[in-house]
Amino acid sequence: MFNNILVISASSWFVAQILKTLIHAVKNKKIACERMIGAGG
Length: 41
What we know:
Layout: H1 4-28, H2 34-37
């Protein structure tokens, strides 16, 4: 019923974006929402 590869890929991307934003916020002591949509680490 579900496309497991697509669900896992989308979930992994979402988790990576959240972690990237959180790490940036901890290092710089401010939240930058543009990190959620920006490329790179």
